[in-house]
TrEMBL record:
Species in which this protein is naturally found: Candidatus Methylumidiphilus alinenensis
Protein's name in the database: Phage tail protein
SUPFAM superfamilies: Phage tail proteins
Length: 344
């Protein structure tokens, strides 16, 4: 481990750190993951000294890492399991998004934006709220017990082209690619250890969204009527070979999306454009491994400098597409030191 590295892990009343004093356990291995797509955050620890009193299930657990630029809290959660083996104690903790996965409730909403529904479900689950994208207007919407709150919030996220994820403090964020995160610079040949990158043009070059109801043709109070002409409650958008999104156009290989919760042409058009913008934001996919960078979180953007012009990845990085971080994974061990793996 490098001389500038510092760590502090608090588990209930216990402290595990790099300091010689006040350190109650020996850390052998740390693995912290934060990601999008509703997976939330996971922390796995391997502690030495098997004769020590182990952490308890239900203890709060927080992890601070410092690679020389100031301490950053990279995980906050609750201990879920503690396993004993020959070498020590294996501790697994999950962050607050798991509470949403356990929530089964029934709620109904009228004339609200998607963010209102998401906030309400997070509050019912006891999850702290971070940044929230507004989303589309919902004339009428219901949350049911089965299949659970998390899956239904993720469905709303898909309609809005948004992502649900947590940060190091355990706050839940619901944002689209338009909500820019922090930007971080990596230097090829200096702190970049591994790099995998590929362009992934979408299978469908466009989407056509159809909602329900006659609000567009008969007035807002007739949203529950069946419409004879669906043109007033539809929207379309396309993405070209360079990843540019165009509203109101259909390509050669469209995707058809029917959403009963969409009750206006405006909302249908918003969904169509959000779908295509989400695909454009993931035009470049892959992963990069660097020396430890605890300041990077999901939703942030990464730029890789100093790539040789003749390198095959240089052309991909010279285009208009950015690298938006979808998963951050921090490794800390006595064999490899402190590493961070980013996925796009």
């Amino acid at each position: 481990m490098t001389g500038s590295l510092a760590y502090c892990i608090r588990i209930g009343a216990l402290t595990v750190s790099n300091k010689a004093t006040g350190n109650e356990h020996l850390l052998l291995n740390l693995d912290v993951r934060l990601g999008m797509d509703g997976v939330g955050g996971v922390c796995e620890l391997l502690l030495g000294d098997p004769e020590n009193v182990p952490p308890q299930i239900g203890d709060t657990l927080s992890v601070e890492l410092n690679a020389g630029e100031g301490a950053k809290t990279v995980f906050t959660g609750i201990v879920d399991s503690v396993r004993m083996d020959i070498t020590g104690q294996r501790v697994t903790a999950y962050d607050s998004l798991r509470k949403l996965a356990s929530l089964e409730t029934e709620s109904s909403y009228e004339n609200v934006d998607v963010d209102f529904v998401v906030k309400d479900q997070l509050q019912q689950a006891g999850v702290s709220i971070g940044r929230m994208a507004k989303g589309i207007k919902l004339v009428s919407y219901a949350i049911i017990k089965n299949p659970g709150a998390l899956r239904q919030v993720l469905e709303l996220a898909d309609w809005c082209g948004a992502d649900l994820y947590t940060d190091g403090a355990g706050k839940a964020h619901f944002t689209t690619p338009a909500e820019q995160g922090a930007e971080h610079l990596l230097e090829f040949g200096q702190n970049v250890l591994r790099l995998e990158l590929q362009a992934t043009p979408p299978i469908h070059d466009s989407v056509e969204v159809f909602g329900e109801g006659a609000a567009a043709s008969q007035g807002a109070d007739k949203f529950h009527w069946l419409a004879k002409d669906m043109a007033g409650v539809s929207g379309k958008a396309a993405i070209d070979a360079q990843g540019m999104v165009t509203a109101g156009r259909i390509g050669k290989c469209p995707r058809l999306l029917k959403l009963g919760a969409v009750r206006s042409g405006e909302a249908a058009q918003q969904v169509a454009e959000a779908q295509m913008r989400a695909l454009a934001a993931r035009w470049l996919r892959g992963r990069v491994e660097v020396y430890g960078m605890p300041k990077i979180f999901p939703g942030d953007h990464v730029k890789i400098n100093s790539v040789p012009a003749r390198h095959s990845v240089a052309k991909l990085l010279q285009g208009q597409h950015t690298l938006r971080v979808r998963q951050v994974r921090h490794f800390l061990s006595r064999n490899r030191g402190f590493l961070t793996c980013l996925e796009f």
